[in-house]
């Protein structure tokens, strides 16, 4: 699957998430409890697994991924990815070779 960056401004991306994200009804599922409430590792993993399942069918998944890659969140599940996974994805993308414009297929 190929997902390119959107041309939406950051504010418009946030609006799209607020209006159409599957997680908008239960944001704590994706962010976890309050920072001052301890969450056992097993409970956190179970919560994150459920959050990933919600993300799988989300109508604004691509916008969520774009937003998360731009803002670099410090916690939570974004587009089904943890903060650690998002960091690795950004690192992997930076290591991809640039594709020259002349190498792109010509429009028919």
Automatic annotation (TrEMBL):
<keyword id="KW-0411">Iron-sulfur</keyword>
<keyword id="KW-0408">Iron</keyword>
<keyword id="KW-1015">Disulfide bond</keyword>
<comment type="similarity">
    <text>Belongs to the WhiB family.</text>
</comment>
<feature type="binding site">
    <location>
        <position position="55"/>
    </location>
    <ligand>
        <name>[4Fe-4S] cluster</name>
    </ligand>
</feature>
<comment type="function">
    <text>Acts as a transcriptional regulator. Probably redox-responsive. The apo- but not holo-form probably binds DNA.</text>
</comment>
<feature type="binding site">
    <location>
        <position position="58"/>
    </location>
    <ligand>
        <name>[4Fe-4S] cluster</name>
    </ligand>
</feature>
<keyword id="KW-0479">Metal-binding</keyword>
<keyword id="KW-0963">Cytoplasm</keyword>
<keyword id="KW-0238">DNA-binding</keyword>
<feature type="domain" description="4Fe-4S Wbl-type">
    <location>
        <begin position="22"/>
        <end position="88"/>
    </location>
</feature>
<feature type="binding site">
    <location>
        <position position="64"/>
    </location>
    <ligand>
        <name>[4Fe-4S] cluster</name>
    </ligand>
</feature>
<keyword id="KW-0804">Transcription</keyword>
<dbReference type="Pfam" id="PF02467">
    <property type="entry name" value="Whib"/>
</dbReference>
<dbReference type="InterPro" id="IPR003482">
    <property type="entry name" value="Whib"/>
</dbReference>
<protein>
    <recommendedName>
        <fullName>Transcriptional regulator WhiB</fullName>
    </recommendedName>
</protein>
<keyword id="KW-0004">4Fe-4S</keyword>
<feature type="binding site">
    <location>
        <position position="23"/>
    </location>
    <ligand>
        <name>[4Fe-4S] cluster</name>
    </ligand>
</feature>
<keyword id="KW-0805">Transcription regulation</keyword>
<dbReference type="InterPro" id="IPR034768">
    <property type="entry name" value="4FE4S_WBL"/>
</dbReference>
């Amino acid at each position: 699957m190929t997902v390119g960056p959107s041309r939406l401004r950051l504010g418009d991306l946030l609006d799209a998430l607020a209006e159409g994200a599957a997680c908008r009804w239960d944001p704590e599922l994706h962010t976890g409890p309050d920072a001052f409430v301890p969450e056992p590792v097993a409970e956190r993993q179970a919560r994150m697994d459920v959050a990933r399942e919600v993300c799988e069918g989300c109508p604004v998944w691509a916008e969520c991924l774009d937003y998360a890659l731009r803002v670099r969140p410090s916690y939570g599940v974004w587009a089904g990815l943890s903060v650690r996974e998002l960091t690795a994805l950004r690192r992997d993308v930076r290591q991809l070779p640039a594709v020259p414009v002349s190498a792109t297929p010509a429009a028919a």
